[in-house]
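re: that chain from earlier
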Amino acid sequence: MGQRKIRVRQYRDGNRPHLKFIVNYREAGKRKRSFFETKQQAESFTAFKNAELKRNGVEHAEFPTALRMMAQEAVETLKPFGKTIRDAVQHYAAFLKASEKSCPAVQLVKELLAVKEKDGASQPHLVDLRVRLNKFAEKFDGQPVATITSAEIDDWLRSLPVSPVSRNNYRRLVVLAFNFAVKRGYATSNPAAQTDKAREPKTKPGILKVDEARALLENASPEILPYFAIGLFAGLRRAEIERLDWSEIDFDEGHIEVTAEKSKSKVANRFITMQPNLREWLLPMRRRKGTVTPQNRFEFRQLFQQARKDAGIKQWPDNALRHSFASYHVAHFKDAKGLALEMGHIDSGMLFNHYRALVRPKDAEKYWNLFPTAAGVSSKVVSIST
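^ sequence. v structure.
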């Protein structure tokens, strides 16, 4: 079908005698009319519309001028990003859809905690999630998570009266929460992943002195003594010790097995060599099966603090047991590569950067010769063979 040429027609209206000519045309699928006082004005307008019709076709002529201008502006705005109007529409449509399906931050945290608990997350991890993410939920109470921006999260993180390390721990868990939100369709992206990390001060790993380690072991009750001994002489993480079962400690072969489901390590299943002194500390409490440490959090904290108090340790370094193990092990056995594998690292880089403090060889020798003495523990330990 050919394009119908737009023409000028004469016009008469007693109520508007000054208007002499009329031009009929279509725009946005609708019929329109423009009126003119002189034929010259009408013909100029007609020439413009006919040229537009010839140049761009009927569809363009019927496309509203305002929309054409808006589309062109959008194209120019998106050009530096290599995106099209279609890309922008699809992205925004997905955002609107997610916003409709989204949930408040409080609900997100409740769902995440429920899932983590069902998936077998450790109690310390659940407590950490609950404490930190509940503060996040309180801050953004009532706001759909799909509408929370990176800038808002950044401002909140910076407002927390905590250390840089603690702030980064908050950030890590919020990133985890938004990953969960994306999986459930509550958000289309993770704004927390775009926030800034706080610069953590570089500090030397803190360790226990040899005399402090001995005092801790000799003053610990039988219920918590295995926790300290395994931490000091096998270097397991706190969560790994809490999940450890006596059946995974092989006294005959001389190793401790850490399985994948009980470790966050990239080296999933691993064996840790039982050093002679560790074997001697554990033998009086040896059992065939059952958890190595108290599972009641309140009881555990009481026993831990009491042992520390009785040992006279006023300052407890962060991750003291694992740091002590790594530091004294490198200084004495001089096998960084083997130690890294036992600690669950794929190489020795993290070991030297985060876990190792300088230790004199003579102190390392004393450390690995910390054996139980009759005066120290025999009166407190009762052998259990069930």
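The first helix runs from residue 39 to 61.
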